[in-house]
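In the laboratory, one determines a bound structure by crystallizing the protein with its ligand and collecting diffraction data. In a computational setting the workflow is compressed into a single prediction: the sequence and the ligand go in, and a structural description comes out. We illustrate the idea with pseudouridine-5'-monophosphate.
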Amino acid sequence: MRLAESANIGPLQGNRMGGMSLAKDYLKVGEEVATALSEGRPVVALESTIISHGMPFPQNLDMARTVEADVRASGAVPATIALMNGRMVAGVAGRDLEELAEKGFSAAKASRRDLAGLLAGKRLAGTTVATTMQIAHLAGIRLFATGGIGGVHRGAEMSFDISADLLELGRTPVAVVCAGAKSILDIPKTLEVLETNGVPVLGFGTDRFPAFYLRDSGHRVDFQVADAEAAADFLRTQWALGMGGVLIGNPIREEDAMEAGYIDGVIAEALNDAEAGGIRGKDTTPFLLKRIFELTNGESLTSNIALVRNNARVAATIAVAFAGRRA
Ligand code: PSU
Ligand code: MN
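The predicted complex, in structure-token form:
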């Protein structure tokens, strides 16, 4: 079955302006990733804002390496994605990965609107879910694992702060495996905006949308998929129709989850601190994550790493199922 072509990059395509002009001219795919893709083998994209802005050094570097190993152990090739030296890189490795982890907040955070500016400026940047989806799609990668997506912030009716992740999911045909969204966000509004953008939300082995540190947000998903084969069938259908992204919620394992009353209190305090500090825009999510880490004495990080690993394994098994029956 041929997959419908996506017009994701739109006006850039076929628009020669001298020198580099096709989006793919700005793309560097690592050798191992390129070989796997050309042979139709399963590949899983991994984002890097979680490395630069989501976790402290050196645990972020350790997490990045461990998650890559998890993807491999589940039968797929990992492709960590970031911006480096004017290129979108799919397959960041070795010293480059270390540099991104060490730089932390002094690396840029690249969402969709930042992409051209950061490439033109040859900046080092972690890519958000939105930008990682864009780059994965350009490279030909269909599955992507992360921790949590960005969403509609609490108080968005005043601030209008809605993550570009939700719009990207509507337009770019990549499946994002996540542990739901944290309650630093307004989860019901996040689900509404996903619906508006035509994004199906699946529950992997559950009918509940997970809430990151918690297995259940109290909200339902649109479709429950029992296993990787069922998820792969869903994706094949979605993309045969020429449709965009899919969000797959994979709940944190029971033993890694946090206690609801406790984490809700911590999140409320972090939100107060953000308000008091006048934190806005793209700084909001990194600030809140850092505060939650501090307020829990690092306990949130342990859960966070556990859930990212869980998502990487599930994304890899879905990638294997997807590649299997496509071949
Ligand atoms: N949620 C997390 N950890 C993260 C992020 C979200 O638990 O690291 C990052 C992801 O890269 C996500 C981005 O795409 O924050 C969303 O940022 P914003 O709300 O500014 O769109
Ligand atoms: Mn925002």
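The mean pLDDT is 94. Keep in mind that any predicted model is a hypothesis to be tested, not a measurement.
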